């Protein structure tokens, strides 16, 4: 096998590196787009679940704990804002928000 020597080999190596970088960048963009789409789908499913099970979440302490634990594991805080989506879906007002904060602070 003949080894590349000289300026032509250097240009070919640089071109190969540039092509690999472009392909890598395109793959990274595609993966990021796919992840964004998956997160949007997951968010919609979680919101649908919260709507569907709103009464159970509010009435059943064990179910509420399991829901909160699940949300915590995936980085979602249903008590994050008393004016946000979760407050609207779950009916969490400022009283419950403040109570939750006090309980968490006491631990």
Structural account:
- The protein is mainly alpha-helical and 107 residues long.
- It contains 5 helices and no strands.
- The longest helix is centred in the first third of the chain and has 47 residues, at 6-52.
- The chain is rod-shaped, with a radius of gyration of 25 Å.
List keywords for this structure.
5 helices; mainly alpha; 107 residues
Summarize the topology.
Layout: H1 6-52, H2 54-59, H3 61-73, H4 85-90, H5 94-106
Sheet bearing the most strands, described?
none
Strand residue percentage = under 5%
Task: Report the structural category.
Answer: mainly alpha
Number of alpha- plus pi-helical segments: 5
Quaternary state of the chains? single chain
Shape: rod-shaped
Helix-residue proportion: over 70%
Order of helices and strands: HHHHH
Distance between the termini: 70 Å
Unreliable sequence segments = none
Q: Average pLDDT across residues?
A: 78
Radius of gyration: 25 Å
List how many beta strands DSSP finds: 0
Précis, in short:
This protein has 107 residues and is mostly helical.
